[in-house]
Design goal:
Strand content of chain A: under 5%
Largest sheet of chain B: 8 strands, antiparallel
Helix content of chain B: 25-40%
Oligomer: heterodimer
CATH topology of the largest domain in chain B: D-amino Acid Aminotransferase, Chain A, domain 1
CATH architecture of the largest domain in chain B: 2-Layer Sandwich
Number of helices of chain B: 12
Distance between the termini of chain B: 41 Å
Number of strands of chain A: 4
Structural class of chain B: alpha+beta
Largest sheet of chain A: 2 strands, antiparallel
Distance between the termini of chain A: 59 Å
Number of domains of chain B: 3
Order of helices and strands of chain A: HHHHEHHHHHHHEHHEEHHHHHHHHH
Strand order of the largest sheet of chain A: 1-2
Radius of gyration of chain A: 24 Å
Strand content of chain B: 15-25%
Number of helices of chain A: 22
Shape of chain B: globular
Helix content of chain A: 40-55%
Radius of gyration of chain B: 22 Å
Number of strands of chain B: 16
Structural class of chain A: mainly alpha
CATH class of the largest domain in chain B: Alpha Beta
Chain lengths: ~500, ~425
């Protein structure tokens, strides 16, 4: 159907265009695009508020993030100087050719990475968060049960269980869930078959908002890849593929110092993982491109972080010679590649895999390693975790604290990685279904608390941090949905 | 009432901890071969001696061994192919719908072994086939060896001629039939995951051939090649690319001792369902079960169904990029060496579950028992096919296919009668 018809009348043009959009599916696409923007960008601030407020409204948080960034950059620069490696360098033609040939098997490359070390690890970041203080808030009292006994000592508002029950109402006991009601003992007629039917319908309608609502009850494995793409509004158009190819050619032409950090990270984490080692090569293909993707810079508008700036050699301080480094503004840390790994189970086409990861990063993962007051930011998640534990398992919390095993010391790494590499993949995907469904990372804190609750009996018997770590070392047998359901809906509050 | 049973006396000539730990945990007593024993986990060499005409001896009712006397009908590459070809011809002769062929003359349901020739008898047939597909690659495998030993790839006739010229004899078979080779069409379009080639190792326990009763271990695994797969002809000699045997991969530069290049079958299922969809994944797993059962049915008539015997086979299967499974070979003595910690646990549990089925209650066996263990002792095994059950038209034994949780078996109705519908077994 086209509008190139002689019958088109000026009077009815407005209606005709609306009809055309509906019929051709463009209305839906526009709706999805708008919905996507609404999900990603924060609500408009007060007109008088400066742009920093969209990044982070609290001044002390901004300051802390700024100092943290300075530290990271200093660490990167000193590694650079020590090893006499430039931050960026054009590759000689022979090297370019070789890399192009090896593009699909970079994992077989064995560059000497012994001198490289990750710029930081989650535990370094935790130390920074522990020292965060709000200068306007004087808490001179001794720690007691009336205030917070955990490691995070900033007064952010976090939800309690009644509020969480409301927010996560679709996880309730009387509502069907994938991850619970699709186990072998349950006949599929009870829930699973119908849920799959509804999922297929949602995909047929191509409605992002409906998909987001749907996945709160979990995605059927066969529909997950498409549902996630629908929610994140990724369609892998020719121009997207072209963009990815462009990034690939940037990788071929220039060598970045962060590339070595990426190699090191993959070799240390994903290559040793029972589930993800198979996809090692895909991880390089995604992450090397990611660090060169300047479109990622857009997310800094609503992130508390600021991309590091570097200067062309010899032009320190001269703004015309300033560049963001790396071009994406994101410096990978130890474990970063684990954000990508689970997606390899869903997408085997590199450009689609790339776009899905990029979107997941700029919507969710960036909040896990930057200091902000956002409810899905890592600081809030830590505080939520500690508060839930202290409120509902006070005996356990107190015991662990007494033996020098502050619970957050153990659960921090789970949350920073969104549990990737700790849970079995099928369970992890069920968890990430709910992250997408609720457009929030709070579920990570709830799950962390639920895990402690689950292993409380064993934890009460340990007498050291090492022993507590051992009790919680292996999460690979956990089933996340029953844990979450019991913690939220079957715990006496 | 309870009979005060004595302790089971065991012997083994395979010094592996996964075995010995299992015997010891049952409180069984180790004895020597020449003493009175009840249970002997023997190597294939030993079973040959026990049942040989010269050195063999009769087993008594309270003695059980872990191999069938002529297991090689299934586990030698040339005999397996021969038996399957014979089985197909028989079915064709009796007009069975299972032996149906398509318009190209290929069996629709029974084409699961790559085209194989046994030189020297088939040499001319092989040359004819080779010339029909001059760009094809063929794999030469010694009939009696394991662990990837002696295997090589060829893509030119001259490569065999060269090989046969080099060897002392001018024919493919020397005096001892151990040096016999098979030539199989090499699957050069394997399904790749993460760009890597892999094969499937599945464990199948057979307690009796007539009636056929077999169990499949739910925890099979995929073995990945450490080096990227390339069909390029220059890499034909690089065994790391082409052979997935752990014995070979272990020596590659990239071999990892944490995961050992292995994936669980449930990971495979999750990946395939997520990227290819549920129906084709279920179909694939159904086909895998199908081909295992058909291979056992093919050798059942010629197997010495000695009641003292059971056997745990290691099936090697390759999936091509059209999601068709191919039976590569069956191992009588699957490796009990553990390459990683996970591996050790898996093999320990495998032996444990095997013993629970083969030696009921861990008590002194009576080989006259009906070999029908109760469901509770199966552990990680699932009934793959029970001929007696199938023929008696018993209650529906359908097991639903669930991602990540079962191997997707859909029941074990007899296939001899009904219409062959590959997607479900009803």
């Amino acid at each position: 159907i086209s509008l190139h018809k002689p019958e088109i009348k000026l009077e009815s043009l407005k209606e005709d265009i609306k009809d055309f959009l509906k019929v051709s599916g463009w209305e839906k696409k526009l709706q999805n695009a708008v919905y996507s923007e609404l999900n990603v960008f924060p609500s408009p601030c007060h007109p008088a508020a400066p742009p920093e407020h969209m990044k982070e409204p609290l001044a002390y948080m901004r300051k802390a993030q700024g100092s943290w960034e300075k530290r990271i950059l200093k660490s990167l620069n000193s590694m650079c100087t020590e090893l006499s490696i430039p931050l960026a360098q054009k590759r000689p033609a022979s090297e370019q050719k070789e890399l192009l040939n090896k593009w699909n098997e970079m994992g077989t490359d064995e560059p000497d990475l012994t001198l490289f070390r990750p710029v930081y690890a989650p535990k370094d970041f935790l130390e920074v968060l522990m020292n965060l203080r709000n200068p306007n808030y004087e808490n001179g009292e001794q720690p007691s049960f009336r205030n917070h006994l955990g490691l995070i000592q900033v007064p952010l508002k976090v939800k309690d269980i009644p509020e969480l029950k409301e927010d996560f109402s679709e996880l309730g006991l009387n509502i069907g869930q994938l991850g619970i009601d699709d186990s072998t003992q349950v006949p599929p007629e009870f829930f699973e078959n119908e849920h799959v039917r509804v999922g297929q319908k949602v995909l047929a309608e191509q409605d992002s908002a409906a998909a987001q609502q749907y996945v709160r009850q979990g995605c059927p494995t066969a529909l997950r890849a498409d549902l996630w793409a629908l929610i994140l509004n990724i369609s892998n158009q020719p121009e997207d593929i072209l963009y990815y190819e462009q990034l690939k050619s940037n990788v071929i032409q220039h060598n970045l110092l962060v590339d070595s950090l990426i190699y090191k990270d993959v070799k240390l984490t994903a290559s040793n993982d029972d589930y993800y080692f198979v996809f090692e090569d895909y991880l390089y293909q995604v992450l090397l491109c990611f660090s060169r993707d300047t479109s990622v810079l857009e997310h800094f508008a609503y992130s508390s972080a600021t991309p590091p700036k570097s200067y062309i050699r010899g032009k320190l301080g001269i703004e015309e010679y300033a560049v963001f480094y790396p071009p994406s503004g994101v410096i990978p840390f130890h474990g970063f590649s684990m954000y990508v790994a689970p997606l390899c189970f869903l997408y085997h086409e590199p450009s689609k895999l790339y776009q899905m990861f990029r979107e997941m990063y700029v919507r969710f993962f960036f909040r896990l390693h930057s200091i902000s007051s956002h409810p899905s930011g890592i600081v809030s998640l830590c505080l939520l975790f500690e508060t839930l534990l202290q409120t509902h398992l006070p005996q356990l919390f107190y015991h662990l604290r007494e033996i020098g095993a502050q619970p957050l010391r153990i659960s921090f790494k789970w949350m920073v990685r969104a549990f990737s590499g700790y849970l079995a993949t099928d369970q992890l995907l069920l968890l990430w279904d709910r992250i997408l469904g609720y457009n929030s990372l709070e579920i990570l804190a709830v799950l962390a608390a639920a895990v402690f609750a689950f292993r409380a009996v064993n934890l009460m018997e340990v007498t050291s941090l090492a022993a507590a770590e051992a009790v919680l070392a292996d999460l690979s047998t956990l089933k996340v949905m029953p844990l979450l359901q019991i913690f939220l809906f079957a715990t006496v509050t | 009432f309870r009979i005060m049973a004595g302790k089971v006396k065991w012997v083994t000539d395979i010094e592996k901890s996964v075995l010995i730990n299992n015997f010891e945990k049952r409180g069984w007593i180790q004895v020597a071969e020449n003493e009175d024993w009840n249970f002997y986990w023997m190597s294939v060499q030993t079973i040959r001696n026990v049942f040989s005409v010269e050195t063999g001896y009769r087993l008594s009712d309270d003695q059980i061994v872990n191999h069938f006397p002529n297991h090689y009908e299934l586990t030698r590459k040339d005999l397996m192919v021969k038996n399957i070809k014979r089985y197909r011809k028989e079915l064709e002769k009796e007009g069975s719908p299972l032996a149906e062929k398509d318009e190209n003359g290929k069996y629709i349901y029974l084409d699961f072994v790559p085209v194989t020739f046994m030189p020297p008898a088939d040499y001319n047939l092989f040359v004819e086939e080779f010339r029909k597909n001059p760009s094809s690659t063929w794999i030469m495998k010694p009939c009696g060896k394991a662990q990837g030993k002696g295997i090589f790839l060829i893509n030119k006739l001259s490569q065999i001629k060269k090989w046969s010229r080099d060897s002392k004899t001018s024919s493919f078979v020397s005096q001892s039939s151990k040096e016999a080779y098979v030539i199989s069409l090499y699957i050069n379009n394997p399904l790749l995951i993460g760009g890597k080639k892999f094969d499937l190792r599945l464990y199948v326990l057979v307690s009796t051939y007539r009636p056929l009763r077999c169990y499949m271990y739910k925890l099979g695994f995929c073995r990945f090649c450490t080096v990227k797969y390339t069909p390029s002809t220059s890499e034909l000699d690089n065994m790391f690319v082409h052979l997935t045997n752990v014995a070979i991969q272990k020596h590659g530069d990239d071999y990892n001792h944490i995961h050992g290049g292995k994936w669980t079958v449930s990971n495979l299922r999750l990946y395939l369902e997520s990227t290819r969809g549920k129906e084709v994944t279920n179909k694939l797993f159904d086909e895998i079960h199908w081909i295992i059962v058909q291979s056992l049915k093919a050798v059942a008539p010629v197997m010495n169904n000695d009641k003292h015997c059971f056997e745990c086979y290691g099936y090697d299967i390759i999936i091509d990029d059209k999601l068709k499974p191919w039976l590569i070979e069956v191992n009588a003595s699957p490796s009990l060496t553990s390459s990683t910690a996970n591996d050790r646990i898996l093999k320990y549990n495998l032996i444990n579950d095997t013993l629970n089925i083969a030696v009921p209650n861990g008590e002194i066996p009576d080989c006259k028992w009906n070999k029908s263990p109760p469901k509770e002792v199966l552990g990680n095994y699932e009934v793959l096919y029970d001929e007696e059950m199938a023929q008696s038209d018993g209650p529906d034994r359908d097991m639903r296919s669930r991602s990540g949780q079962t191997t997707g078996m859909k029941g074990n109705r007899a296939r001899d009668s009904g219409k062959p519908v590959l997607t479900t077994w009803k």
